[in-house]
Amino acid sequence: MKNSPITSLVTGFVGELRAAGVPVSMVETIDAMRALEVIDISRRPELKETLAATLVKAERHLAAFDTAFEVYFSLAPSLDIPHQSSASTTQTGDEAGGGSAPSTEDLQRALLAALANLDMGALASAAGAAVDQLSGFEPGRPVGGTYYLYRTLRRLDIDQIQEMLAELLGAEAGDLGDLERRLLAEDVEERLEQLREAVREEIRRRLVADRGRDAVARTLRRPLTEDIDLMHATRRDLEALEDAIVPLTRKLAARLARRRRMRRRGRLDFRKTVRRSLATGGVPLEPHFKAPRPHRPEVFLLCDISGSMATFARFTLQFTYAMAGQFSKLRSFAFIDTVDEVTDFFGPGVDFSAALAGIAAEAQVVLHDGHSDYGTAFTGFVERYGADVTARSTVIITGDARNNYRQPHAELLGEISQQARSVYWLNPEPRSYWDTGDSVMGRYSPMCDGVHEVRTLRQLESFVEQVSLSDVAGRRRPAQLRVAGGR
Q1: Helix ranges, 86-142 (H)
Q2: What do you get for the CA distance between the two ends of the chain, in Å?
Q3: Contact 406, 439 (CB under 8 A)
Q4: pLDDT digits (tens, 9 = 90+) for 279-315
Q5: Phi, psi of 329 (to 5 degrees)
Q6: Whole-angstrom Cα distance, residue 2 to residue 481?
């Protein structure tokens, strides 16, 4: 298969997966190529399953894989020809059949019959005729596939097809109870989704033939779940993020445990090694090591939960509590223009939506007008909880540092920093936005051991890993050195 069209096709496909953020190694690519040697690559379902099995390691990456696969292998009943000309894929019904083009009613009847009989071949054929007749596809026109999809389905009147299909299937089923009617409605919707996918696939095939795979893949590329911007996530994105948190935290916890096992041996115990070597004539055949005393950090998590920060705070809290086993103690605090401890809202198996609703209803986080006031929040934290912060404590603050032009009281964060082992700030805004408008990030940064732009779950995972391994990162530098170097 060396230097064959399928080799270059798979190479481009792997490159697209990597561009989308899916980790694919060279070894996995070689495994995929070897697997393709023993299957019938003209059978797309078999081809897709083989590539997925060898290239994808996480379920959350399957959506990106599916999109790339449909682009790179959309032209493929025969993979021996890597690219078709646009002329062969844009002929109308007149050119293909030599007769008059089918009417919309004819197309509806053909699609309805294919859906009723679950005839995928007839469905693909009718979908191709519908795209020919109704999409208005023009080679070279800079229009996305969504436009052609919407135009085709609107002119087909998919709502009418749904009614006709429900009536047809219902007549075949006879008298139905409530449960049967519900199942019938779900069956109709599933078949309509097959119609949409058939039309979508036909449009995608024509776009690829017209513009090339790489260009179409770039337009369809979407960020992976762990790379979605938390501040601008849609409702669908938020649902995907919810589903991704538990697998991410499990993987991270396993990785941290493995690293700790690798670091169990402490420094060489010279005296014990020499003492034991007396039994072998003074030759230190068996070195001995001092048992390490790992320190799991005690975490204080302070979250701005004002309107603009609510989503970011939710996922920060959820991710951190999922990793609570990596910390010796975890206490959480919420603030808007004053601060309140909310640790008790988060127990084992907590529903985070319910917990956040409880915080909004019961926690004392609003003192004046309900707009972010970091200075007042730090004042309240120092007065009420400052004595609890010790040299074992790691303080994590989440928020955009937009203080609504109020006094930042950065000196109070300095007091917290003097007492704590370390202080980190997580800001969900792009770094280029810091210190613009009412942002006072520059006033707080010198008081912290680290300030991080954290806009995605991937960045949050990286930060939590850093904090969780702080027990092996060495002792923190003296407070006076941090003050002299940064303030």
Answers
A1: 86-89, 93-97, 104-117, 120-134
A2: 63
A3: no
A4: 787 777 778 776 655 567 789 999 999 887 888 888 8
A5: -155, 145
A6: 60
